[in-house]
Amino acid sequence: VSQVLLKNPNEPPVVFHWFPIIGSTVTYGMDPPRFFQEMQQKYGDIFTFILLGKKTTVYVGTNGNEFILNGKLRDVSAEEIYTVLTTPVFGKDVVYDCPNSKLMEQKKLMKIALTTEAFKSYVPIISDEVNSYIKRSPDFKGNSGIVDIPKNMAEITIFTASHALQGKEVRARFDESLAALYHDLDMGFTPINFMLHWAPLPSNRKRDHAQRTVADIYMSIIKKRRAEGQSDAKDMLYHLMNSSYKNGQQIPDHEVAHMMIALLMAGQHSSSSTSSWIMLRLASRPDILEDLYQEQVRELGPEPLPPLQYEHLAKLPLNQAIIKETLRLHAPIHSIMRAVKSPMPVPGTKYVLPTDHVLLAAPGVSSTDEQYFPEPMKWEPHRWEKDSRIAPSIVRNEVEEEEKIDYGYGLVSKGAHSPYLPFGAGRHRCIGEQFANVQLQTIVAEIVRNFKLRNVDGGNDVIGTDYQSLFSRPLEPANIHWEKRDSP
Ligand code: HEM
Predict the structure, then answer these.
(1) Which of 89, 327, 336, 430 to mutate to test ligand 1, by most ligand atoms within 8 A of the CB atom?
(2) Which of 145, 175, 386, 430 is the most buried (most CB within 10 A)?
């Protein structure tokens, strides 16, 4: 009753809860997508819940995506939410430890290394890493076996991303000290750190030590490259070392190092989780894996298939659709948050969101909404073919060329109304989308060449999701059965 009496008519409905600080933290934390869907049915597209004492206003659906992700700079802030978590891990003066205008410049400079020219050189590097991993991994000895796949996909992701994007010196160090240091850094990247980022916990001490050590490793590589003349590889490090801000200042070495850490962390979790989901989904649908192999034979064949090149990827639409469809159901970032900086009227409603609210966008809700994606919970990569019975409305209607806008890091779609936004939208939109696509498409194409996969019990079930980390991923163990394609 008290909750009803206290309700402010200009604020969204508050999700019912028994305890003031805990609020809905536990039900949200256990399964955020289910929480969003159930609350949407009960309260509509916009509602407030208590997350660790904070009034958190969720706005789902396409209007919610637009309202939050395209919020004006004076109205919303990402850095205010994320900095406690990211600054100890990335280091000072980059991403959320600087004004937004500097982040926009940094994103622009990072994007310079993410060109078609660069991607052309990345595909053979990624292919080689996948094949040599399969050859040397004890988990893939023999002709067939069962493997708990997320660990392997995490390793494949870090070896491929570090080699392609970070350069050969960084990749070489992942065989030695960097793997353990990376793990310690990663321990600073958990939800608990939103509250305990400052605490003198052993994990935080390890995190801080790892941050300093990894930053030193990058800075020593930079110094060595400078002393020996430039590396011949025009990788991310090369571009950042040789870039300047608009005011003419060269990027200081410590900022280059911290940006490299940020890129590594940003790409690793999302791509590694996505590649694990792809393997699990393919194991649950061996027919699709066979379609993928036949697509390669048809488009790139006859057998033996040629070494994979960047140009091949565009000829493999089903291989591309695998990534799209997997991100539709398993976007690794289920909650995107912003602090409210000035009271925000919500268009078309009587609500005005005050500055003590946090905003939460969840594009995963619209990407599993039946009105846009018929049979929404079905993983069906073929739906992205135009003539599919369950093609998404965005494919069937073929949205005309969208208006673009530049927030300072290159042109992106102006609107954020799309029901499908696994890479976000607006000024904080992902700059790694193309790289992730190249990386994931190459990994999938190579796995399909090497293996036939199936569920251990031969069925079509798929494992549940672990929401305990900041990025959602498959619950473990996540075992699948593999068989080498060329086995006798
Ligand atoms: C931002 C998703 C891979 C670098 C984002 C955002 C999303 C996202 C949803 C927006 C976050 C927000 O608005 O708060 C993904 C997914 C990936 C992926 C699903 C892979 C499947 C990568 C990779 C890199 C990267 C490989 C680096 C090479 C970034 C950066 C930002 C970003 C720098 C900007 C953060 C900001 O401006 O606040 N990503 N990402 N991402 N991502 Fe990715």
Answers:
(1) 430
(2) 430
